[in-house]
Recover the amino acids of this structure.
């Protein structure tokens, strides 16, 4: 369990977090969302003390983080960044084995754990363990980054906008993956995102932040249906008009395709549903044209919100 007790953080005269009080339960998927500069990442980084708090107490399992050995604290918490930060000169196996090696694991135990994790996410060890990061796709690199974070079975994993640089299909595949992984490994995940669809899809509870203040903490359906104030209502207004309410008719489809081995979608099928189905490797078509990841990217690049 993670507890913030009247926690504040100030840089110079500006308060980045203002008297925050909340608790994150064991095995909870807790998502921080809010506009740029709202204090999301600062809040996340205070958990492993990459940023120290100015006031209040942060407790992990009833013990203040400031009383813990800093190196041991950080090694005990998984951490995944948007930039992935794999070491380009190391193989996939060597990247995954970094934290176990720092914690004194034997070579045999590291190899066994690395192979186990790679096979778990569908990257067969015999094919991927020896590769360098530049030989992987963006989605594969991010999977390896996640495996590195969970290699030593941490109870807590911090994730700072880890999927924001990926295309919509890869992003949704990784969202499905991390949600399933969190349940399977019984992880406590604290996840920062600016993507409202991602926040509502992943979270057990969402914390909405603005200007260093927690505006609301609630389950996704409560945030969506019962916003606590005007800010939360306005912040999620865009979500009401997002891809869930845009249909396949809005896509620009340019590739004719034989529909024999595809599933034809109805004209009122939402793009949100299409992304989910493409992430499950379904072959989709509409009026004789292929619906692909590229067509989704083209739509979003054209200014979709």
């Amino acid at each position: 369990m993670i507890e913030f007790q009247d926690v504040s953080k100030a840089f110079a005269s500006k308060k980045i977090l203002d008297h925050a009080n909340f608790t994150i339960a064991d095995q909870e998927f807790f998502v921080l969302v809010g506009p740029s500069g709202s204090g999301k990442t600062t809040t996340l980084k205070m958990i492993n003390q990459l940023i120290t708090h100015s006031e209040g107490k942060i407790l992990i399992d009833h013990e203040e983080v400031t009383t813990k050995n800093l190196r041991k604290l950080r090694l005990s918490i998984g951490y995944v960044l948007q930039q992935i930060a794999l070491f380009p000169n190391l193989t996939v196996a060597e990247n995954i084995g970094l934290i176990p090696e720092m914690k004194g694991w034997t070579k045999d135990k590291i190899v066994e754990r690395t192979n186990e994790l790679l096979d778990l996410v569908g990257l067969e060890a015999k094919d991927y363990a020896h590769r360098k990061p530049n030989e992987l796709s963006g989605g594969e690199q991010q999977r390896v980054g996640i495996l590195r974070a969970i290699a030593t079975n941490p109870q807590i994993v911090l994730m700072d906008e880890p999927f924001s640089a990926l295309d919509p299909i890869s992003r949704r595949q990784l969202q499905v993956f991390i949600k399933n992984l969190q349940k399977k490994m019984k992880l406590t995940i604290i996840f920062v995102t600016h993507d409202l669809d991602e926040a509502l899809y992943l979270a057990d509870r969402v914390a909405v932040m603005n200007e260093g203040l927690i505006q609301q903490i609630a389950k996704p359906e409560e945030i969506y249906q019962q916003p606590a104030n005007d800010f939360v209502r306005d912040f999620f207004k865009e979500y009401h008009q997002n891809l869930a309410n845009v249909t396949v008719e809005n896509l620009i489809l340019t590739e004719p395709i034989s529909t024999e081995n595809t599933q034809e979608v109805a004209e009122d099928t939402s793009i949100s549903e299409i992304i989910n189905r493409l992430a499950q490797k379904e072959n989709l078509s509409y009026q004789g044209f292929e619906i692909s990841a590229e067509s989704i990217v083209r739509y979003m690049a054209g200014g979709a919100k």
Notes: The chain has two domains: 2-240, 243-301. The CA atoms of residues 44 and 158 lie 7 Å apart. The domain at 2-240 is CATH 3.40.50.300 (Rossmann fold). Residues 301-305 have pLDDT under 50 and may be disordered.
